[in-house]
Amino acid sequence: MSPTAIDIMLFSHFSLIIRRLRKKRRSAAAQLKISTNINYAARIPPFNNLPHLFSCILLYAMDPQPPQCGFEGNPDLYGLGIRIGVYFQWASALIIWRWYPEGRNELGGAYLVFLFALLIAMVVITARREPIHSAEILLLIYIIFGGVFTVMMIGLRKSHLQKAKKIKTSWPQTMALFFILAAASIYCTWFWLSGIHHHDFLDTNCGTYGFLFTKVSLKNKHVTRFFAALSMYLAILYTLGSVYAVGALAAFLMKAPWLIRIIQESKRLSRARDAKSPERSPLLRSWRIAELATGIIAPATNIVSFFYSIIGLEMTLHWNHVTGVYTINSVGQLIPFVIGLVGFIKVIYEPIKEKYKLGKRQTDGIEGDSRGDVEHDHESEKNAISGLKELNQSRDVEFEAASANRRLGYLDLIKPVERVTVGEWRKDGFKS
């Protein structure tokens, strides 16, 4: 057999081997963790009888190339549609706190249900030991607490104080918020202290990274300790809030006297029109500086949390090379996206509608000035007549008081009666 025929047979044989190896490599590339520094030539026996070209082809076929960084994400938890829907809700919250505070309970209740579902999903995945990456847990934490400090935090703003009568706080919603945040904070404390190190959470091939105002490694002990300390602080805070909420509910159901006094005092203070009202205590008037400071801190916290959470989510996805979460191709993503979009449009529509109604009322008032002038004249006449009647009545009362003084003086009582004012006679209920 000629050398050319041998070369052709060898080339055909190795081509078949190459195709089979490449097919196997594609199916198992995700599970392979092969270092890029391995010397493949040391593991391959020398082929002195093969042309150099065939040796190079065989080495290329056996080398599956460095493993791809990243992993296939879960679009049902943090896909593009879900993320955009969440971002719309956060933006709606910023608009509501500034221009439409009456709608905060509706938005807060809807987001509370979403937080509860997200927390349940995170706990169930962890309990079942389903394969999930540490970066994915960090993404869910961003969504939970980013929404809390953007949607649920309001502060003592002047606009809220002026519209306090229109805003009704829901006690069940407040209690549910404390319980959910306490549970989420406890879970995060466990995750950063123990779970990320000893649980079956997967690592990204090229390193697991997160966002803490910069790119940080989740394997860095200083980073995990910081997150653990922050989670522990929030766990203590929200647990105490939950205990206080339960105690207040129990006292309310038992009709505790101290709680009734607090409610009565709150109602009395709510009737005060401004901080200078005498119905407000000096302590509340001294809180005006704190209210102004909180009125600045609360909006700043909302805005910082809004941008920080969005940047944290997107950069964590990018740094960990998460794929499959940048398209809206499932119903599980489409529903949250539509809900968030419709809610955002509604929030924008409400202030515009209120402004339109106000402008229309002002226009109708200008057009009705001519008719109002006549009615105003009749009203002025009625007020003038009523004032004259009251003046005559006051003069009659004063005359009766003076006459009574004279009659009592004529009787030479033991203690002479001095001249009294009309107001004092009215207070004593003198008649005749």
UniProtKB/TrEMBL annotation:
Species this chain originates from: Venturia inaequalis
Membrane-crossing segments per the record: 80-100, 107-125, 137-156, 176-193, 226-253, 289-311, 331-349
Protein keywords: Membrane, Transmembrane, Transmembrane helix
Protein name: Uncharacterized protein
Top-level taxon in the UniProt lineage: Eukaryota
